[in-house]
Amino acid sequence: MLPIERKKQIEKLICEREHLKISELSEIFNVSEMTIHRDLTPLIDEGKIIKTFGGVTCAQSIQRQQQNTCVYCYREYQKHLAYRIVLNNDITEIACCAHCGLLRYRQREERVVQLLARDFLRHTTINAKKAFYVLNTSLHINCCQPQVLTFEWEDHAKKFTKGFGGDIYPFHEALTIIYEQMI
Amino acid sequence: MLPIERKKQIEKLICEREHLKISELSEIFNVSEMTIHRDLTPLIDEGKIIKTFGGVTCAQSIQRQQQNTCVYCYREYQKHLAYRIVLNNDITEIACCAHCGLLRYRQREERVVQLLARDFLRHTTINAKKAFYVLNTSLHINCCQPQVLTFEWEDHAKKFTKGFGGDIYPFHEALTIIYEQMI
DNA sequence: CTATCAATGTTATAATATGTTTTAAGATGT
DNA sequence: ACATCTTAAAACATATTATAACATTGATAG
Question: Bridge-partner residues for A151, per DSSP?
């Protein structure tokens, strides 16, 4: 295997597994640990990985551990479902989905200056207060229950429920319903 | 074999295999490594290949891997629409959407060992050959035209088209239709 | 026939990659 | 805080590959 191939694969492996020992990489590619150290140097310089004693960690995954968990349920969130709550001290809280986002909103209500959701189909960022909330649909997305989907346009929400069923609510109604279902 | 013929074949080989050693090329064409070096010089000058110690790499494949761009249309791709083509040399090519993925599949067909898509609604990774392809729907997702959406289950595809319109096809039919629409 | 040229091979030297050994630094347990 | 173990980094040695210079071959024109 060419050195450049190995270097690429090392980078890929680290990102996939998040953590790896130098000794493991040495065995995988059948080269000495010194060679692995040398392969890693440019990746460290570029900030792609972080080296700790005995191993390496993907720089992104470190961020993820610190930042990518839902502020309400502590689940890891996916970008396309994320619900963002901007507070009056410029801090943004991120919930894993509209379900958690609505519940968190109730807790923080008086400090919230902005509320952002994602359009379920187009993944565009939208104003969560003007969004249309679909509950009780037959499509399950493997996030929190009772499930809540957000749409920018009522038209899309209607077309969606035509096929997948469910009920459409504006922001405040969805807020009340979810809250009542959780107590 | 004529020198010019060998040079052409070297270029082709490098693009196919992505990586190649000088020593391998030397054996394949039964000429000295020095001759291979000389053959490669113009390709390097043209920027078609990148030479590293001991071998050569196809320039395109390096750029693509680094930049998160579609292997077919060179657009930056989004994870939830990505279409992945795993080749028999363990290299994975990534297209920005099913549209580009299908067209790329045609080019690489005999070398493809696996084909992965994402379920449009649930974002789960699915077998692209068993997926259901929705064309001509009214929902536009700001990727390549003619637009192609992939679903794991026919049921979901049907429910989707009930609201948003469009036609459902299995893999091979979608492949043919997209190809014919692009010529 | 031989001068010339292009293509290729050969050899010597330089550059790069890798491994090994030694020394320094960090982790761990008492 | 110290002893011990593990890992990192530096220095050196070795192996591999690249490059440049020169040699060989074969074709062609004069």
Answer: A132
